[in-house]
Each structure stands twice: as C-alpha cells, then as structure tokens.
Amino acid sequence: GNSVTQMEGPVTLSEEAFLTINCTYTATGYPSLFWYVQYPGEGLQLLLKATKADDKGSNKGFEATYRKETTSFHLEKGSVQVSDSAVYFCALSEFTGGGNKLTFGTGTQLKVEL
Amino acid sequence: EPEVTQTPSHQVTQMGQEVILRCVPISNHLYFYWYRQILGQKVEFLVSFYNNEISEKSEIFDDQFSVERPDGSNFTLKIRSTKLEDSAMYFCASSDSVTQETQYFGPGTRLLVL
After folding, report:
1. Chain B contacts of A100, Cβ < 8 Å?
2. Are the C-beta atoms of residues B23 and B92 closer than 8 Å to each other?
3. If exposure means fewest CB atoms within 10 Å of the residue's CB, which of A12, A48, A63, B60 is most exposed?
4. Helix (H, G, I), strand (E, B), or coil: what is residue A26?
5. What sign does the CA torsion over B28, B93, A80, A75 have?
6. Pairing relationship of beta strands B109-113 and B10-13 according to DSSP bridges
C-alpha cells in the first residue's frame, strides 16, 4: 500500500536558519502530495501541495518540489521564524472513488529559537 | 474564511460507553472524512463519506464505529462501546467537488477513554 516516510524530529533551529524536512513516499500511480502544519493546540492546516511531477508548491516562504524520480517531496524554507514552530506532516492523496484518502507521515516537530 | 468546526474539543468517557463526536464541515463541501491520531503516532484515515454513504473505510473502522450526516450541516462519528485504545485525537475533514483532494481539517476532538 501507499506510505509516507518523514525525517525524525524534533528539529531545533535558530531564527533565520535554513530548514529542510525530508519526505519520501511509496505509491501506486501518481498521487498528489501535501504538506500540512499543526500549530500547538490547533488542527491540521494545509501548507502547500503539488499535483504532478516537477510541480513546486509554495506558501508563506515554504516550498516543496514533487520529484518523481526520487519519490520525494522535501519541505524547505530559506529563513525560519519563531512563529514557524509547529509539527509538519507530509501526506499523499489517493483517489478512492468517493473522495480522496490521505496517507500521512509521522510528522516532524520544528522548534525555532531566538 | 469558512472552516470546519468540531465539538466537543475534549471528551472523557468510561470504557464501554458510547460517544458521539460532532463535526460541521464547510457548507458547500460534499466529501467528508474522519481521521484519528493516537498520541505520538501518525494521523490515520478512518472513513470517507460521500452522497450519504461510506465510500471507503480503513481496517480500524470496525463495527463499533459508524458515521452519519443527520441533517444538512452535521457529520458525526459514533463509537458504540469505547475501548482504552480508542483514546486519540479525532479529526474531521471535508473537501469540495472541484478540488476534492484538498481536505480542510477541523481542530479535533481529544477523546480519553478510562
């Protein structure tokens, strides 16, 4: 079946540091890929998505490129802020006929310090 | 901006009791989902619901679970006889007919079974 593997956390960075959170996937077909973010005490929010190979999703300074050849969708940000502290989830979407089922990675906790 | 809401935010129950978790999806959405996240583990798909019927369910979603859309706005998850291992955060999500795969999540209900 489909699966998503994320790098282990927690990741601790200083403000303005460069962020990479690795995500690889295993899937039949060509799924869409997502990054969701969960701030403390809140639900999952869609951060960005990419629907086909070589697409780049971007939002709030975060980017991720759908790499079919390496089955990866790594999340990057050039300069993190304290407000980016959250748990980040990589996910893929599989169409099931009556909607889409998301398969999530384990989540990576990011802590940004001053 | 429209959002998915869930009630209650927290629920504590005794093993063997029935619980009903409630969700109000975004009003023009047609696809509805439940996911759960056991503490420290992945977000897992439970069930998808479209056109007043279940379109897919996971192996977790056994006979103790049921979903219903009792009116035009609510979407509920019922657990008939709770077990200790049902303790988790339960997330509701919805998506529209155009961008089906982009799911919008509620803030979750934290269920604790004692």
Report:
1. 31, 48, 95, 100-101, 103
2. yes
3. A12
4. strand
5. negative
6. parallel
